[in-house]
């Protein structure tokens, strides 16, 4: 199975554009590839997001816009099962960016390492990314850096797989068309 662990950071509280994306591809229980880029969101930055991510309008100004980034990463993002920690957030931002830039959208499937870790490792005090990483001894270099968070997500995914748990029950459908989870009947 091929997993595409990703994380996005946003420039403001509207959470409809990306200021960076990190991607780690997991195959055979190891990270086999990674990608990171800043993204010019073509929107204003809130002070809160700047403090959280350390991405400023000045650092993002020369970065490519989402349209150019998606052209490069689309084959990667469509090559395996998407995976994120608190995946609803990342999937929603991705969906909003795809629609805003006029890309075709589709239904897809994803895993959320936050939900998986809640069920597989219920004794962890909370399931925020930094807490889960600390409890499972997964490296987290710089929280709220998209590549660092994507690597951490990949590490948690690998720990969940290696625990022997059947993670297939955590796969969920997602409609990138409407920016919400598609509920199975």
Descriptive account of the structure:
This protein has a single domain (2-181), classed as Ribonuclease H-like superfamily/Ribonuclease H (Nucleotidyltransferase, domain 5, 2-Layer Sandwich). The chain has a 7-stranded mixed β-sheet with strand order 3-2-1-4-5-6-7, with helices on both faces. It starts with a strand and ends with a strand. Helix 5 (113-120) runs parallel beside helix 7 and helix 6 crosses helix 7. By secondary structure, it is of the alpha/beta class. Helices cover 38% and strands 22% of the residues. The protein is built from 7 helices and 7 strands, in the order βββαααβαβαααββ. The chain is globular. A hairpin with a 2-residue loop joins strand 2 (20-27) and strand 3 (30-38). It has helices at residues 47-53, 57-61, 66-77, 87-100, 113-120, 129-136, 146-162, and strands at 2-9, 20-27, 30-38, 81-84, 107-112, 172-175, 180-181.
């Amino acid at each position: 199975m091929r997993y595409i662990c990703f994380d996005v950071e946003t420039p403001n509280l509207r959470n409809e554009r990306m200021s960076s994306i990190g991607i780690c591809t997991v195959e055979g229980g190891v990270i086999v590839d990674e990608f990171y880029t800043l993204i010019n969101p073509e929107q204003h930055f809130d002070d809160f997001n700047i403090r959280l991510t350390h991405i400023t309008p000045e650092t993002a100004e020369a970065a490519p816009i989402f349209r150019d980034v998606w052209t490069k990463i689309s084959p990667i993002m469509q090559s395996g099962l998407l995976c994120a920690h608190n995946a609803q957030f990342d999937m929603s931002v991705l969906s909003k960016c795809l629609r805003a830039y006029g890309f075709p959208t589709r239904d897809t499937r994803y895993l959320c390492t936050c939900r998986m870790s809640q069920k597989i490792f219920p004794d962890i005090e909370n399931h925020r990314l930094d807490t889960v990483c600390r409890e499972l001894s997964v490296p987290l270099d710089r929280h709220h850096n998209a590549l660092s968070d994507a690597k951490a997500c990949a590490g948690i995914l690998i720990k969940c797989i290696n625990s022997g748990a059947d993670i297939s029950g955590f796969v969920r459908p997602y409609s990138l068309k409407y920016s919400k989870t598609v509920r199975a009947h």
